[in-house]
């Protein structure tokens, strides 16, 4: 890869605007839902899938269900999307409020990360 192309790819990465919001892993068989704050939904889905498949996820209940039902036994979705303009701003507070709303709207809901 030439230097010009490498600089272009770095610039594109630094200027990207990842989707932020609340991700959800819902076990189809039990109806249990697990929600988490995400500053990059695609990356967090990949990270959680990797940890679950490696039996290395910190949420024991989610791991148990994943081991029993597998990835096909879950519905993965973005429960809420944060609309934002400033990529350098800290959106943690807004995301946490969204997470609380999701948890309160579902009796069986838990946090993905404890």
Task: Give a written overview of the molecule.
With 114 residues, this protein is α+β, with helices and mostly antiparallel strands. 42% of the residues lie in helices and 23% in strands. The chain is built from four helices and four strands; from the N terminus they run αββααβαβ. The protein has helices at residues 3-14, 41-53, 60-69, 92-104, and strands at residues 20-27, 33-38, 74-82, 109-111. It has a four-stranded mixed sheet with strand order 3-1-2-4, sandwiched between helices. Strand 1 and strand 2 (33-38) form a beta hairpin. The longest helix is centred in the middle third of the chain and has 13 residues, at 41-53.
The secondary-structure class comes to alpha+beta
Seen as an oligomer or otherwise, the chain set is single chain
| Major sheet details | 4 strands, mixed
Low-confidence stretches: none
Structural shape: flat
Helix content: 40-55%
Compressed to H and E, one letter per element, the order equals HEEHHEHE
DSSP summary: helix tally: 4
* Count of beta strands: 4
- State the end-to-end distance: 41 Å
Beta fraction? 15-25%
Average pLDDT, rounded to a whole number, is 95
Side by side, the strands of the main sheet go 3-1-2-4
Q: What Rg, in angstroms, do the CA atoms define?
A: 16 Å
């Amino acid at each position: 890869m030439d230097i010009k192309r490498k600089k272009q790819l770095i610039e594109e990465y630094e200027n990207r605007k990842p989707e932020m919001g609340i991700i959800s892993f819902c076990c189809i068989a039990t109806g249990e839902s697990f929600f988490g704050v995400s500053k990059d939904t695609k990356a967090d889905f990949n990270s959680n899938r990797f940890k679950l498949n490696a039996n290395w996820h910190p949420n024991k209940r989610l791991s148990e269900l994943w081991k029993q039902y597998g990835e096909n036994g879950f519905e993965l979705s973005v429960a809420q999307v944060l609309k934002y303009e400033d990529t350098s701003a800290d959106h943690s507070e807004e995301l946490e409020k969204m997470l609380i709303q999701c948890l309160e709207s579902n009796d069986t809901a838990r946090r993905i990360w404890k």
